[in-house]
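Retro notes
What went well: the complex prediction finally ran end to end.
Inputs used:
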Amino acid sequence: MDLTLLLQLTLNGLIVGALYGVVAMSFVLIYKASQVVNFAQGEFLLVGAWVCWWFLTEWQLPFYAGFLFTLVFMTLFGLVLQVVVLRPLIGEPVISVIMATIGLGIFFQALMKWIFGVFAKPFPPIFTVERISVLGLEVQTVYLVSLGISLLIMAGFGWFFTASKHGLAMRATAFDQQVAQSLGVSVPKVFAMSWAISAVVSSVAGVVVGVVNGVSSALSFYGIKVFPAVILGGLDSIIGAVLGGVIVGLLENWAHYIDSEWLNWGNMFQIAPFYALVIILLIKPYGLFGTKNIERV
Amino acid sequence: MVAMTPAGDYRTSYRADTTIFPTRNSRIALVIGILLLCTAPLLLGRYELSLLINIGFLGIAALGLNILVGFTGQISIGHAAFFGLGAFTSAWLHENLGVPVMLCIPLAGIVTALIGLVFGAPAARLKGLYLAIATLAAQFILEDFFARARWFTGGVAGRMTESPTLFGFAFDRDETYFYLTLAWVVIMFVGAANLMRSRDGRALVAVRDHYLSAEMMGINLAYYRTLSFGIASLYAGIGGALYAHYLLFVSVEAFNILFSIQFLGMVIIGGLGSVMGSLMGAAFMVMLPEVTQWGAEALAGSAIDQALRLGASISFLREMVVGAAIILFLIFEPDGLARRWRLIKAYWKLYPYSH
């Protein structure tokens, strides 16, 4: 038993899990508002991180300016995607919408590889202090900041959905589109807004991961790791998404620990969440917090 | 396969209504079409033949996915994993048990179908996006299994295999392998067309159209959803086995998620719920990267090429074109090439009086 390693991995799991939670939250946002399962969520991270990287290295902008421009770009990106690709597909069967987002996913992944190459590229250093010691564990500064950012985004979501006018309109649309429409909510606007917010929030996560690990197409795998998280938490629950993200983060790190200590199978880190996903789907497909869909004839 | 039905051709029995080839001309057209294809190895070069063979085995697997997605309304994002399973099973059966390759191909199909049934059993409870996510997980789990199971797949190094032989005649060149693929394509497509007019086939369509009504009419939902998964896997397995003995080498990396998405793309581009559409979709998906490459080669050396680095990034371009094709078809032609084909036929039927 290597207790330090276990602690370190638990901490990693919490931090990565919080990031998964943020991505899962933005995934759930789109699903709740517009009933679209977005298989291109990971590409939001990818595009956001590359665009930020491009601003910082090619244009030599300071971090805050580059980051701000990235957020503006991602807002437009989300809006355009929704209006151009997803809007014509409203009312089509689930399979078509899923396929359209999958198509978007491969399109943008290939486009990013084409423009920026296949190799991981590091961000210019942002923090002067590389590592901080917390309770005797070495933690990268970026990680701590990312945890802070994740918590901030979660709090922001909480405020947005309980107090702001747009957030309430979004919840109303998620509850019942026709009722929302009759109360003066513009449903197309809500759809577009949900995509824009989702793209922006995901890109923040993308930039954080990019700063830690460098930017590469591996980022889009976060979009796939989101599925275990959201299924665990329940597809239409924001709190569930956060919790599911943290659990998946912890799960994969603990699986890694068990693997490295006893099993030595290798690759458990990657695959454990998917086993969990299948098991959850069999036992409790609506997740921990999801609403159970009752069908009437 | 809707052929041109002459006016005044009344169907007087259910049998006549469900026949695959409604008129004599459609039967003749089919025979002539197959005969024409049989002369292809004499007329075409090796490159064109290899494209046709690719269309053949991918078309078989795409047809399987179409039975699942287009006819039963269940989605699967793990079809390439089953395709790979068929390829590895066939190679393994031949090498370890000494089964002749000709027998390995259908056996691989059956083994894949059985494993597909195992995966399909939980899928019977799920539908729509839950099933999509579950099969996505199945794709990663199977991929992980392929990389891990060295006894079965040869691990990272991959697995070599051999060409099929029949009574001492080896299908080891493109010219001969083409006939083998053609034979399987005909068997599998006629089989699927037949399935769709049987009770089981119509039950699958009923499950797709309204599963609650279907259940009320006495169709066992779990049974037919599982069955559809099994049939899809059977087709994937046979397609995969044909792939393995054509390339003579199977590697773990080939059967990734992108390949699965390409299968879905074939089904959507060809037309959901259309038997011949699957073949058209496969042809489209095989030709698309080739056409992209021709385009890039035509531009080679020009200013556009130098500005965009077309030559070096042709593989990314191909992926992009696949993604774009899926999206464009979904938006502009959701019923796929099969519908376009019907429209073209209808146009010529009335020519020159069609508007």
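What we learned: Chain B has one domain: 50-299+307-350.
What to try next: split runs per interface for comparison.
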